[in-house]
Amino acid sequence: MLFRSNSSPIGNVLINTFKAMNAFLQGMYIDANEYALAAVQLADEYGVKGSYFPFEAGYILMDTNLEFAEVEKSQGYVDKYLEYALDCKQYTAIVAYYAKASLIQLQAGNVSAALAFIRKGREKIDSPLFGQEISFVLDAHEVIIRIALGENERIAELLPRLENHKLLNQFKLVMELQRNPADAERTLKLFPTETVRDKFYKEYMSAIVFESKGPLAISHLEKAIEIAIPNGYFRSFLLSSPILKNYLLDIAAKTPTVYMENLARAIREQSQVHAKAGSIGDTALTKRELDILRRLATGIPISQIAASVHISQNTIKTHLKNLYRKMNVESRDEAVERGKELSLL
User: What is the pLDDT of residues 17-35, one digit of tens each?
Assistant: First the structure.
């Protein structure tokens, strides 16, 4: 899809970029991807450089290809345009690209690398010259990573900074519904349906809320799939819980369309990757284990840590055993280092 008029070269680039952004915001990812690709191709053709380059189109290419489960393509755009954004000192684009790189690593099961990209983004804007708005995207992406890790304490720190983020507000709504399922049906009727993406998330999140009620959850998943296919949504299903993934595999077995066969294959491949690398959820620490980890980092003896949290020597040994197992380490020093890699310290 390429829109070309008789306007200036920069005008043609901007028109395709605006069309890409509009389609992206509406949730029409296939159209957004095509317009974004046209924008960057025209920029290359015309030699558009510096601040006039369509960095927004580059971000859309990273995001949509990641949604399409075209991870290598998404990474290719990060490699290409992040370097250019760094050279041009386009800090908004730099932060957005680091955030997208973090999700690529999360999808691959590389949690440490995912958080490392979030840190790199924060380092680029660690200055009073930059307001909270530019770090907004990093906060939102870190929440997604922390959800996968089960780090509720850090999520609680980040959520107040994301009050106006629609997707995060939707996530908080689902959390509330899971706590109060009796109000679920009434509250879900109030869920926004302004865009295609809203409609998809209403069905998808309804499936999350009702995942314990098999047939009802499957019904919502089937409606979500109907919306997903023409718009290219794919990755969202790969972030589902194990229960929902099993439902998706059941749907694929009953309706073996090309889309469902590809989704089922991706779910199985993802499971194999996580089985080899260790499930992301395996690194989730309890509040007590996290407290002990932070005390380990101070260097005080184990006996003093036990006394400070009012537990016995045997109990703290059990906590340390579980902590080391979850973090895949064998010693105190390794646990502290791993904790720093995961931004837990």
Answer: 999 999 999 999 999 999 9
The Cα 105–Cα 111 span in angstroms is: 7
Share of the chain above pLDDT 90, in %: 37
Q: pLDDT at residue 281 above 50? A: no
CB-CB contact of 39 with 20 (8 Å)? yes
Question: With bands split at pLDDT 50, 70 and 90, how would you rate the model's confidence at 4?
Answer: low
- The region, left, alpha or beta by phi > 0 then psi within -120 to 50, assigned to residue 67 is alpha
* Cα separation, 155 vs 177, whole angstroms: 18
